[in-house]
């Protein structure tokens, strides 16, 4: 009879279930444990505007996102033509990845503990980046803040938008959730 070990939970998810969830329930005055906000998904979006002239830049963006997230990104395409930008409908202009479940927890852990402290000239994240429903979006100017990216193998620096989607109903609940994870120091 063989014993197969079940895969362990991500470190941050384990901490959320054992400590943070109960503390948030008490702080927010929620009656049911299922009302406590939690991480739903993390979306990374990398727009490549110069891809209208040079299509190979999309491949580099896909490669970088795949290295960072461990998941193959999808190519985003233009919804309408804009003559001023030399953009045609259906043309590839970016790449995005949606992380859910354990992958989202692992990425969020790496983002908080490794990537954000590596941002150059970091002065904090904006507290106004909440969307009104507890989700938080911020941008980074270069992919080099992630330790998985090899500096010698990149063709150009690219920025990206990172959206942390939570089950919070208000910005205050979302802010309390992120502060419980240690985002408190970053949001100025």
Any key phrases for this structure?
188 residues, alpha+beta, five-stranded antiparallel β-sheet, 4 helices, 30% helix
Summarize the structure.
The chain has 4 helices and 5 strands; from the N terminus they run αβαββαββα. By secondary structure, the protein is α+β, with helices and mostly antiparallel strands. It starts with 10 loop residues before the first helix and ends in an 8-residue tail after the last helix.
List the helices and strands and how they pair.
Layout: H1 11-28, E1 39-47, H2 56-69, E2 74-77, E3 92-100, H3 101-115, E4 136-140, E5 160-166, H4 171-180
Antiparallel strand pairs: 1-3, 1-5, 2-3, 4-5
Question: Could you describe the 3D structure shown?
Answer:
It is a single chain. Helix content is 30%, strand content 18%. It is globular. It is of the alpha+beta class and 188 residues long. The relative contact order is 0.19. The model has no long low-confidence stretch (mean pLDDT 84). The protein has a five-stranded antiparallel sheet with strand order 2-3-1-5-4. It contains four helices and five strands; from the N terminus they run αβαββαββα.
């Amino acid at each position: 009879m063989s014993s197969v070990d079940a895969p362990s939970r991500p470190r941050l998810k384990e901490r959320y279930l054992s400590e943070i969830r109960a503390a948030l329930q008490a702080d927010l005055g929620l009656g049911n444990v299922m009302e406590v906000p939690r991480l739903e998904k993390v979306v990374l979006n990398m727009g490549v505007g110069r891809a209208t002239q040079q299509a190979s830049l999309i491949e580099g963006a896909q490669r970088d996102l795949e290295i960072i997230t461990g998941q193959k990104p999808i190519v985003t395409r233009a919804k309408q033509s804009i003559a001023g930008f030399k953009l045609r409908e259906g043309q590839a202009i970016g790449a995005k990845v949606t992380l859910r479940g354990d992958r989202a927890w692992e990425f969020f852990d790496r983002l908080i503990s490794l990537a954000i402290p590596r941002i150059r000239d970091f002065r904090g994240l904006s507290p106004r980046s909440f969307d009104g429903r507890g989700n938080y979006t911020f941008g980074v100017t270069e992919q080099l803040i992630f330790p998985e990216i090899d500096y010698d193998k990149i063709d150009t620096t690219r920025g990206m938008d990172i959206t942390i989607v939570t089950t919070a109903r208000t910005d205050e609940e979302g802010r309390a959730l992120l502060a419980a994870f240690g985002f408190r120091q970053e949001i100025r």
